Amino acid sequence: MKVKKLILFLTLISITFTFSQNTKNDLSFLFKDLPFKMKTLTVPKFPNKEFSIVKFGAVGDGQTLNTKAINDAIEACSKSGGGKVIVPAGMWLTGPIFMKDNVNLYLEKGAHIQFTKNFNDYPLIESNWEGYNQFRATSPIMGKNLNNIAITGYGIIDGAGEVWRPVKKSKLTASEWKALINSGGVLDSKGETWWPSKEALEANELMPRLRKENKQLTIQEAEKYKLFFRPVLLSFIECKNIWLDGVTFQNSPAWNLHPLLCENVILTNVIVRNPWYSQNGDGIDLESCKNSIIYNCKFDVGDDAICMKSGRDEEGRKRGRPTENVIIKDCIVYHGHGGFTIGSEMSGGVRNIKVDNCNFIGTDIGIRFKSNRERGGIVENIWLSNIYMKDIPTDALSFNMFYGGFAPTDDSPADEKSKSAKAIPVSESTPIFRNIFMNNIYCDGAKDAIILQGLPEMPIANIELKNVNMKADRGISIFDATNIKFENVTIASKEPIVKIIQSEKIFFNNLEPKGNFNTIMKINGEKSKDIFVKGKNALMIKDKTILSNEVNKDLIKYEN
User: Residue 189 is part of which domain span?
Assistant: First the structure.
């Protein structure tokens, strides 16, 4: 009897283990009740073969250069039909790693891949940066036109970004700034930004001028400025079936993870880290990608954390490849310019995005939509739900159609922009933001709760916010918008709770201001009309609404 019980017990353990193994990477639950059509993604599968980098001569002492050994292991794995390339515990110094088809680069616990600080290891190549085709230094992790690739496990991948990035004085303490200057490099003319070389500083001034003049450097000319052309840490271009799982990606020279023109991109359980002051230190930039999942990941970075892009200005519009069909769930963002961001390079369009159950803690902006009049492109069909934000220095929710390339804390306020904004003719370079739905949005502490800033010639349109509860210094500001619906919105802020400027078809159902106010709502602009306030507090709000002289009071309706 004891033997039978033991056999039964072992059988149950085996079944449980097998079940957990088979279901660990089952992501089908993410596709339940999706508001758009998207094929169900599965993680890539690989043959049960292993190739240890040690057998190819790698030495994990932090001193030996293992570039050849690691790439030889990847090449052998791919040529044999695929499998796992094993990186054991240790400190593995290396130059660029080139992924190949059907390879899972697997980092065991304790594994640390450290990319070199030798700029000669990263030759200039034709690539893409911030939506433009241009030269860049070779990325530490590269892949182009590949199928079925993965980087998984438990280890750390460090991009040695500190030797590439410029640093602003305002972002360091006095002792940190002094140490940085003493390390070498040069300062700009104002003494406000440190650059790793005088050539990188020169290129920072040269490249914008060349672009305005429609001129380009040859690759031989660009070589002089290599340190300016700092790479993203991971660059996958035109690849299919990508899986990143469990690994920590940190300290990138520019953006951290950059899938470009890829399909079927899956991130699970990944940690993405950059110093908070890292220039262009984005977390992940999905650019012109189709069918992606970002699940249970953590970000603590120096720029936008989870960002959707699709090319810049005319180049992006000609490419015509939107980022579409993306599920983002159960993620945490600590520092970043934006927790979840669309733009500003979105000229090829962004559509069909679902973001659910995410925490943004101390991000400069919580939910961030940004563009400008040069971009063009359509952003539409975006769903955000169950977003929890705390201690946001600027806007909890921001639509900024006058984005000028500044960090959120440096950007001019929306009301300043609106004073000088005049309509211009609509063209292919006019960005369109529409059909965006938000439900269960919370923020404990921000400078502004909500800013909706459209363009006079192209208002942002069809935005719904339901079940919103925010505490901020200022409340809701609406500029150049149409068909905006608020339902069950509670705002604790200074007065007025709501400012409406040059906007129409604005609906409030159950707006609840927290506190005692003389003024709850201010409405300005001759284009402001068809504003409806109903539900609880409607008549109280009516008594505490101020209309400018150009507003027709008959077009403002209140109903309990």
Answer: 167-223
